[in-house]
Write a structure and sequence with these properties.
- By secondary structure, this protein is α/β, with parallel strands linked by helices.
- The protein has 3 domains: 128 residues, 3-Layer(aba) Sandwich (Rossmann fold); 249 residues, TIM Barrel, CATH 3.20.20; 34 residues.
- It contains 17 helices and 17 strands.
- Strand 10, helix 11 and strand 11 form a beta-alpha-beta unit.
- Helix 11 packs parallel to helix 12.
- The relative contact order is 0.09.
- The structure holds sulfopyruvate and magnesium ion (MG).
- The site of sulfopyruvate has 12 residues, from helix 9.
C-alpha cells in the first residue's frame, strides 16, 4: 500500500486541516507528523498544546493511521524514516512568496531522490477557520498564558531571542517579523524587551528612571494589546523595596513574564556610559533583600525576577561579579543578567563559563550591544539562555527619521525622500484591521 504523509504545526485542527487529511488518506496509509514544540515556535507561533497533546489529538482523527513527532521543519527526519510516496500539504506553500515555499522546494528535492511526490491540496481558510485561529491568538495573549511562556521558552529553546519593543508598532515588528534563512528554515523572535533606554528615548527623556512606572505600564499595555509574545521588563533599579513589591504584583497580574532589576542605587544612569558618569552599586545585602522581598510578593510560579549585575560595567572585577550573582541566586533570583561594555566578548564568555562551573541551571541573560560580534549559537554554547537585542530598533529608526526631516527642509518638498519611505499601504499590512 502507498504511504502518504502530512505535517501539522497548529494546536487547533479546523476544516481546512481535515480536508488535507481526507485527501491524503485517499492516496495511501496516512501518517501525520506533528511539528515539535521547538520547531513550531520558529515556524509559526507558540503551541497552545504540547507536542504530546497535539500528537494524541491528531491520532484520534479518522483516516489517520499513524502519528509521529516531526523534529525538523524541513521534513528531513520524517522523510528519511518513512520514505512516503506522497507528501500532502495545503497549496499555500506553493506560492513562491510564501515563507514556507523554500520548505516545499526542499521536500520536493528529498522526494525526487526515490520517486516520491508532493500533492498540494487547495487550502481554504473559511470564516470559521479564521475564527479558530483568532481565538488561539487571543488565548496566547491572555495574562496566564503569556506570563508563563518565558519559562517554557527557556526550557525549549537553545537561546531565547528577544528584541526591544517600546510601542504597539515596534511590538508588531517583534511579533510578526519572520525570515527564511539560507537553509530555508524559518525563524522569528521569541520574546520582547521593554527597555528603559528605548522607552525613555521614545519619550525624548533621559534614561534615569524619570519615566515612571505608570508610564512604563502604559507602554506595556500598548504592546500587549497587539502582540502575544512574552515580555521582559527592564525594571531599572527596582526603586524602593516598598515600591518594588507593589510593582512586581502589578506586572505579574497583567501578564509580564519577568522583570530585570540592576544592582545600582541612587540616580541611575545608562550602563553604556560605564565609568564615565558617577554610578553607585548597591550593597549585596540591600540588593538581596530587594530580590527576596520581590519573590515573597509573587503569587504564581511563572513570573521571574532576574538580577542584573553591574560589576563588569563598573570595573569591579570578575570575582566581584561572580560572587554577587551567586549571592543574588541564593537570595531567590530566578535568573541573572550580566552586562559588559567591552567590544570583545571575551569578558562575557569568561563570566558565563565560570558561573556555569558551579551553577548549571540558573538562566543567564546577556545584552550583546557592545560585544556584538558574538552569535546566538556561541552565546548558547557558553550557557546563555536569553539574548536581548536591547536597542537596535530605536537606533535604526532614529537616523532614518532625522535624515528624512533634514531633506524635507532642504528640498522644500517630499519628492526627494520618497524612495526611502515605505508606502503606508505596506505598513498597515502589519496591523490587524
Ligand atoms: C536598556 O535597554 O535600557 C538596558 C540595557 O538597560 S543597556 O542600555 O545596555 O544598559
Ligand atoms: Mg535600562
Amino acid at each position: 500500500m502507498a504511504k502518504a504523509y502530512t505535517c501539522f504545526c497548529t494546536s487547533s485542527i479546523h476544516a481546512g486541516h481535515l480536508n488535507v487529511i481526507r485527501e491524503a488518506a485517499k492516496l495511501g496509509e496516512l501518517t501525520v507528523g506533528v511539528l515539535s514544540d521547538r520547531e513550531a515556535i520558529r515556524y509559526n507561533r507558540f503551541p497552545l498544546m504540547s507536542e504530546d497533546e497535539r500528537l494524541a489529538a491528531v491520532r484520534a482523527i479518522p483516516g489517520v493511521a499513524n502519528a509521529t513527532i516531526q523534529r525538523d521543519m524541513m521534513y528531513g527526519d520524517a522523510i528519511a524514516a518513512l520514505k512516503p510516496d506522497f507528501v500532502v500539504h495545503g497549496d499555500n506553500w506553493a506560492d513562491p512568496e510564501a515563507p514556507e515555499h523554500a520548505i516545499r522546494e526542499y521536500v520536493a528535492g528529498l522526494l525526487a531522490e526515490y520517486g516520491g511526490r508532493i500533492v498540494d491540496v487547495p487550502y481554504t481558510i473559511d470564516p470559521e477557520a479564521r475564527r479558530i485561529d483568532d481565538l488561539d491568538r487571543e488565548r496566547l495573549a491572555m495574562p496566564e498564558y503569556r506570563r508563563r511562556r518565558l519559562r517554557q521558552l527557556i526550557k525549549l529553546c537553545p537561546i531565547v531571542k528577544t528584541i526591544e519593543a517600546h510601542s504597539g508598532l515596534t511590538g508588531l515588528i517583534a511579533e510578526k517579523t519572520v525570515v527564511r534563512g539560507g537553509d530555508g528554515r524559518l525563524d522569528q523572535f521569541d520574546a520582547m524587551w521593554v527597555s528603559s533606554l528605548c522607552d525613555s528615548t521614545a519619550k525624548g527623556k533621559p534614561d534615569i528612571e524619570l519615566v515612571d512606572m505608570s508610564s512604563r505600564l502604559r507602554t506595556i499595555d500598548d504592546i500587549m494589546e497587539v502582540t502575544t509574545k512574552p515580555i521582559i521588563l527592564d525594571g531599572d533599579t527596582g526603586g524602593l523595596t516598598e515600591h518594588f513589591v507593589y510593582n512586581v504584583r502589578t506586572l505579574e497580574r497583567i501578564g509580564v513574564s519577568a522583570v530585570i532589576i540592576e544592582d545600582k542605587t541612587g540616580l541611575k544612569k545608562n550602563s553604556l556610559f560605564g565609568t564615565e558618569v558617577a554610578q553607585t552599586q548597591d550593597t549585596v545585602e540591600n540588593f538581596c533583600a530587594k530580590i527576596a522581598a520581590g519573590k515573597d510578593a509573587l503569587r504564581t510560579k511563572d513570573f521571574m525576577i532576574i538580577a542584573r549585575c553591574e560589576s563588569l560595567i563598573l570595573e569591579r572585577g570578575m570575582d566581584d561579579a561572580l560572587a554577587r550573582c551567586r549571592a543574588y541566586v541564593e537570595a531567590g533570583a530566578d535568573g541573572i543578567m550580566i552586562h559588559s561594555r567591552k567590544k570583545d566578548p571575551a569578558e562575557i564568555i569568561d563570566f558565563c563559563d565560570r558561573f556555569r562551573e558551579t551553577d548549571k541551571e540558573t538562566p543567564i541573560v546577556v545584552v550583546p550591544t557592545s560585544f556584538n560580534s558574538i552569535t546566538e549559537d556561541e552565546l548558547a554554547a557558553h550557557g546563555v539562555n536569553i539574548c536581548i537585542y536591547a536597542n537596535q530598533l530605536t537606533r535604526a529608526a532614529f537616523p532614518a527619521m532625522q535624515s528624512v526631516a533634514a531633506d524635507l527642509l532642504r528640498h522644500h518638498r517630499a519628492l526627494e525622500v520618497d524612495s526611502r519611505l515605505m508606502p503606508f499601504k505596506k505598513i498597515i499590512t502589519l496591523i490587524d484591521q
